[in-house]
Amino acid sequence: MENNNGGLVIMWLLRMLLFALILFLIYTAVKYLLNSKRKLELAHEQKRYYFWDDQENVRKNFLITYKGVLFEGEKYLGTTDNSFDVVSIFIWPHNLSALKGMVREDFLFIEKKITETYPTAKIDWKSPVKEFMHKTASPGEEIKDHL
């Protein structure tokens, strides 16, 4: 009778290797699907709203996509009455030509969403959105100017 233990060991090792490969592929697929940067890119392509931010890292800018326009926001840390917090945010679009068709309410929506995350921050738009917001303000409406 021949000893077939060598063949069984090889078969067992191949099964374990195949099992490990399947686990690795599942892990990689889940990590890819849950990647927030990928979600931002997908929302940008689909012209949906998405807010991508690392709230723990004040020095890292956040990205917002809304109606196919990608905005970047720069956060500044400062003091409030009782803590250190983000007190100022500057926002600008990455591509000015993508702003075509956007209205004042779109920018106010973005401000509202940012304020939900950073309630103590004063939001300032960079040109040309800043000028557009001043120009389209309703009579008697308080105009935010943080410079």
Brief write-up:
This protein is α+β, with helices and mostly antiparallel strands and 147 residues long.
Describe the 3D structure:
The chain is of the alpha+beta class and 147 residues long. It is built from 4 helices and 5 strands, in the order H-H-E-E-E-E-H-E-H. The chain has helices at residues 5-33, 36-45, 104-117, 129-135; strands at residues 50-52, 62-66, 69-79, 84-93, 122-125. Strand 3 and strand 4 (84-93) form a beta hairpin. The longest helix has 29 residues, at 5-33. The protein is elongated, with a radius of gyration of 25 Å. 13% of the residues are buried.
Describe the secondary structure blueprint for this structure.
Blueprint: H1 5-33, H2 36-45, E1 50-52, E2 62-66, E3 69-79, E4 84-93, H3 104-117, E5 122-125, H4 129-135
Parallel strand pairs: 4-5
Antiparallel strand pairs: 1-2, 2-3, 3-4
Helical content, roughly?
A: 40-55%
User: What is the strand arrangement across the widest sheet?
Assistant: 1-2-3-4-5
The major beta sheet can be summarized as: 5 strands, mixed
Mean pLDDT: 87
Cα(first) to Cα(last) distance is 91 Å
Poorly predicted runs: none
Radius of gyration: 25 Å
- Helix and strand pattern: HHEEEEHEH
Strand content bin: 15-25%
Question: What is the number of beta strands?
Answer: 5
Tally the helices: 4
Briefly note the structural class of the backbone: alpha+beta
The shape is elongated
